[in-house]
């Protein structure tokens, strides 16, 4: 778990520095299962700059949630995490439990897909907000915490916040609950907000409103946001940078607009092609054929090779490492550098 290299990094590097909100470097996660210990994350490297919104994208099971839980050290008992994780400038993996709890109460907060997971059903909303504020700052008086809670409820768009404080979670809608969960995070004054599919359980209109709220909070408070999603449409408008994951690996990363318009990894290209809204002129929606390899499968080459429209023979036997392919961009594809941008039918061209 060496952090030596990062200590000397001054300017933001492709792999991040202590100045970043989050640095994940060569992170490997294994989990104990009925089938033995399985490797869930393989050498994942990415960073989230201060004030940046970074999306983790990929199909279900690609390792987005596990990466977030590893960053917060919230993985189930028995999980083994190797590599380097710096959250708000602090090494997470060797951190004593008390400091870790402090970090999670104040500086790094998590918003789940299901707001009910964060709200106590039997406690009034106001009491939960006050508790969150006072856990983060025990010097805060009950009155000051209530005022802050009301302010934050208003900030996230809850009408009549003072009277809402007296409601129970079951008395508000799903969209409002998610706003309340975000307010619960905000009263702590966090530096980083982790959002794991924060809008998947919501209807389309509410989804758009929550995403707009996240954007505003990022702009106004300088909040760094890490958002896991399998929905490329969601991130296109929200994220500054995109980290694409496949089978527990980071296969591509870079500024969102660039990655979405000129993907350098065939998986990103396939994902884009399969996204709703990217219909071909005939109106056909594509799906990526086949399935990603599971964590129990032994890989000799590229994890995407079996499904890749551009695969060469070498892809089945050589494992690609993420490499810089343009300023601020990486791709883990043997073809990304030597063969230029990935396009349909690329295999036929070589
Ligand atoms: N506690 C666990 N025990 C065993 N395997 C797990 C556990 N948690 C996750 N996994 C496995 O780890 C892999 C990555 O899961 P993860 O939930 O991180 O993916 P994801 O990209 O967030 O997917 P989703 O979009 O469905 O949430 C999957 O193969 C999953 O089955």
UniProtKB/TrEMBL annotation:
Domain called ABC transporter: residue spans: 22-272
Record localization: Cell membrane
Region (Disordered): 1-20
Membrane topology: Peripheral membrane protein
InterPro entries cross-referenced by the UniProt entry: AAA+_ATPase (IPR003593), ABC_Ni/Peptide_Import (IPR050388), ABC_transporter-like_ATP-bd (IPR003439), ABC_transporter-like_CS (IPR017871), Oligopep_ABC_C (IPR013563), P-loop_NTPase (IPR027417)
Pfam families the UniProt entry points to: ABC_tran (PF00005), oligo_HPY (PF08352)
Gene Ontology MF annotations: ATP binding
Keywords: ATP-binding, Cell membrane, Membrane, Nucleotide-binding, Transport
Signal peptide extent: none
Family under the similarity heading: Belongs to the ABC transporter superfamily.
UniProt name for this protein: ABC transporter ATP-binding protein
Species classification: Bacteria, Bacillati, Actinomycetota, Actinomycetes, Streptosporangiales
């Amino acid at each position: 778990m060496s952090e030596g290299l990062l200590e000397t990094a001054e300017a933001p590097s492709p792999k991040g520095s202590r100045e970043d909100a989050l640095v994940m470097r060569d992170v490997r996660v294994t989990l104990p299962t009925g089938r033995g210990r399985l490797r869930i994350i393989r050498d994942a490297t990415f960073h989230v700059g201060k004030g940046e919104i970074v999306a983790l994208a990929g199909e279900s099971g690609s390792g987005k949630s596990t990466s977030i839980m590893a960053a917060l050290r919230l993985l189930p008992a028995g999980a083994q995490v190797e590599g380097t994780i710096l959250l708000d400038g602090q090494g997470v993996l060797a951190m004593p439990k008390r400091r870790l709890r402090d970090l999670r109460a104040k500086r790094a907060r998590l918003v789940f897909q299901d707001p009910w997971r964060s709200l106590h059903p039997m406690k009034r909303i106001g009491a939960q907000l006050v508790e969150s504020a006072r856990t983060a700052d025990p010097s805060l008086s009950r009155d000051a915490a209530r005022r802050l809670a009301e302010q934050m409820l208003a900030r996230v768009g809850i009408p009549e916040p003072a009277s809402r404080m007296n409601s129970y979670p079951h008395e508000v809608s799903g969209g409002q609950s998610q706003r309340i969960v975000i307010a619960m995070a905000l009263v702590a004054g966090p530096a980083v907000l982790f959002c794991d599919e924060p809008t998947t359980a919501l209807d389309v209109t509410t989804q758009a409103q929550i995403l707009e709220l996240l954007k505003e909070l990022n702009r106004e408070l300088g909040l760094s946001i890490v958002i896991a999603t399998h929905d490329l449409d969601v991130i296109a408008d929200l994220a500054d940078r995109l980290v694409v994951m496949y089978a527990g690996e980071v296969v591509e990363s870079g500024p969102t607009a660039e990655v979405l318009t000129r993907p350098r990894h065939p998986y990103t290209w396939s994902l884009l092609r399969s996204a709703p809204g990217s219909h071909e002129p005939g109106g056909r929606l594509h799906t990526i054929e086949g399935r990603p390899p599971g964590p129990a499968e032994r890989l000799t080459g590229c994890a995407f090779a079996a499904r890749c429209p551009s695969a060469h023979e070498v892809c089945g036997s050589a494992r690609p490492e993420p490499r810089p392919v343009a300023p601020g961009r990486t791709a883990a594809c043997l073809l990304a550098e030597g063969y230029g941008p990935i396009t349909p039918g690329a295999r036929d061209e070589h």
